[in-house]
Design a protein that fits this description.
Structural class: alpha/beta
Strand order of the largest sheet: 2-1-3-4-5-6-7
Shape: globular
Number of helices: 25
Number of strands: 21
Length: about 625
């Protein structure tokens, strides 16, 4: 019996993620003597063509696909295609795409589904299929009976001794390609979580935590180093360690390997001694589950965590010299405008920790999903999952208030920087760029070369780079090299300026709207468009224009001037003060490097802005408003 295991594309990650779950299943099946062929479809640009090709070449008896909920549409397409090409193939699905909502079994289109841990269940299932046995005796599955009805068998106990499970099938799923493109690898050293956060679904067991021995983990790391040249790994379990002793044991045994590593931890576990030991043994980053700085929201989420513990852990990590990573997520059922401000106010004052801001996701299998179904917010759970679990309002806020709250979150995340002091900057004719900055954390100076070849932050067009002395990161308060615009953009801009000068505001608005869709990186276009919205009496449109464009020019102080003005005129003085302060901070950080001549070279949009509005933002808008009236 030939078994084909396929990892589908994953909608929320890059094409180079490594599918650890199905790789464990493959290694277990191979350990028990089954003929297994693996295919990592996530590495294929034409993934549909590649899937058809491997089906035609291998003609398996069994097709197994493992995935999480975001990959639902890929998985269902694969099973439909497989049945069209090979009508007699037995299709099997596993992973969170089924386990989080078993009612999706019919929708996915598989013959058999594995619910929960897959390794032991896969061995039992394949033996039964091979021998023509009774599927009803296989624990932990759903299958279709002779009449096409779904039958769910008794649950399968969790694997207690995880060291019995062989390491994932790295070769089978092309780990070498994944690592080459990502440069790091997230491992799993334990399974299950004893906590019950309302927004989290644990495919590997809620309420019970099981861990590999540290010796097993070290053996896997050594294998990755020797076989693939890996020099950076992450311990990204739901709970890496419940006890400090386990972390210290790992530190002692990983130290001789001289490898860089990172781990996911609970804020309540860490102390200064532990963090110091982690850093000296190669740890570079600690990932924390933060979620909120509102006690009301943390209680609603069942986080078992206090804001003081969050702040303490982040400050200890910062003082240790390591980076921290975490998210504040907004939209819990207990969220209000004021609870959101509790978190946002704290975040604005502590940007040096680089906590991400975002929305809470309502995934199947979570308490908030079940509650949303009960409350009628999710009226059709199957349709909701098929649609990719889109944004919904689980709070008790009116929709407009809810969206205003989220828009504050998004514009702060994309627009507010933690800038260093820019001491010098330059751009050569070949567009190569450099910047010399003073770290806001330790005061040391670092020169950054080849800025044009450095990737900007994924959520905002700004460089975030580490200090050469303390290693902590900060933002460069200038976009390097500056944005260049093509002839079409410049022509439309000239037309908009001509209409504006002639007082034809609606015509100018039309041109600027076209420009805005072509290039939101053209900051002067954004500013003029916002000014026209204000002149025509639409401060809400002006605010939204600045908000959606902020991520493209977060280092430009005049963008923050306009954000402040638009929020003030739209009745949100709290946001206006935040952006006023950011504009002031950016100017202070940029002033040492930007004289009149360098402004034209390094930031032509700012130079043009100052030439158009020599009297400042407020005077320009008053003039526009009077002209519009």
């Amino acid at each position: 019996m030939k078994i084909l295991l396929v990892a589908p594309p994953y909608a929320l990650l890059s094409n180079y993620y490594f599918p650890v779950g199905i790789a464990y299943v493959s290694s277990m099946l191979k350990k028990h003597g089954f003929q297994v062929v693996c295919h990592n479809n996530a590495l294929e640009k034409d993934w549909q063509g590649a899937f058809r090709r491997v089906l035609a070449e291998e003609r398996p008896d069994v097709l197994g696909v493992g995935a999480l909920t975001p990959s639902f549409k890929f998985v269902s397409w694969m099973f439909q295609t497989a049945k069209e090409m090979l009508p007699n193939v037995t299709t099997v699905v596993g992973g969170g795409v089924l386990g989080s909502e078993p009612d999706m079994f019919y929708q996915i289109g598989a013959d058999v589904g594995v619910v929960g841990e897959g390794e032991a269940a896969a061995v039992d299932l394949m033996r039964t299929l091979e021998q023509g046995g009774d599927l009803g005796q296989v624990k932990g599955i759903i299958y279709r009976d002779a009449e096409g009805k779904s039958v769910r068998t008794a649950p399968r106990p969790f694997i207690e001794d995880l060291d019995e499970v062989p390491i994932p099938d790295y070769e089978g799923f092309n780990f070498d390609i994944c690592y080459k493109n990502v440069g790091t690898h997230d491992m799993i050293s334990s399974r299950g979580c004893p906590f019950h956060c309302t927004f989290c679904y644990s495919a590997l067991g809620r309420g019970k935590h099981r861990a590999h021995s540290i010796d097993y983990v070290i053996r896997e790391i050594k294998y990755l180093m020797d076989r693939f040249g890996v020099n950076c790994v992450g311990l990204m379990d739901e709970v890496f360690a419940l006890r400090k002793e386990r972390i210290l044991e790992f530190c002692d045994k990983v130290a001789p390997l001289k490898i860089t590593w990172y781990a996911q931890m609970r804020c309540s576990v860490v102390d200064a001694e532990l963090l110091a030991r982690m850093r000296e043994t190669g740890c570079c980053t600690v990932f924390y589950g933060l979620e909120s700085m509102s006690p009301v929201v943390l209680k609603s989420m069942n986080k078992k965590l206090k804001p003081s513990e969050i702040e303490h852990a982040l400050e200890l990590t910062f003082q240790s010299g390591m980076d921290s990573f975490g998210n504040f997520i907004f939209g819990d059922p207990a969220e209000t405008t004021e609870t959101a401000w509790e978190t946002l106010d704290w975040w604005v004052k502590h940007r040096k920790y680089f906590v991400n801001l975002g929305k809470i996701d309502c995934w199947p299998g979570t308490n908030i999903f079940h509650e949303s179904v009960r409350r009628g917010i999710v009226r059709n759970k199957i349709g909701f999952i098929k649609a990719g679990c889109p944004l919904i309002n689980m709070t008790h806020m009116p929709e407009a208030e809810f969206m205003d709250m989220l828009k504050r979150v998004w514009v702060m995340h994309e627009g507010l920087l933690w800038p260093g002091r820019l001491l010098a900057a330059g751009v050569e004719p070949d567009c190569s760029a450099m910047a010399r900055c003073q770290c806001p954390n330790c005061g040391a100076e670092t020169e950054f070369a080849n800025m044009e070849s450095r990737a900007m932050h994924g959520d905002r067009m700004a460089h975030r780079l580490p200090c050469s002395s303390c290693g902590r990161s900060y933002d460069i308060p200038l976009r390097l090299p500056p944005v260049k615009h093509n002839a079409e953009v410049l022509s439309l801009f000239a037309q908009a300026l001509e209409h504006r000068a002639a007082g034809r505001l609606n015509e100018a608005l039309d041109r600027l709207n076209v420009l805005f869709e072509i290039s939101r990186q053209h900051t002067v276009v954004v500013i003029l468009l916002a000014s026209l919205h204000l002149a025509l009496g639409y401060p809400d449109r002006a605010k939204e224009t600045i908000r959606v464009a902020m991520k493209f020019s977060p280092a430009a102080p005049y963008m923050h001037d306009w954000a402040a003005l638009c929020y003030e005129l739209d009745g949100d003085p709290r946001m206006a003060r935040i952006f006023e302060d950011q504009a002031r901070l950016l100017r202070e950080c940029r002033e040492p490097a930007l004289n009149a001549a360098s402004r034209m070279q390094l930031d032509p949009m700012e130079h043009l802005y100052l030439s158009i509005f020599p009297g400042g933002v407020g005077e320009a808008v008053v003039g526009e408003r009077q002209g519009g009236q």
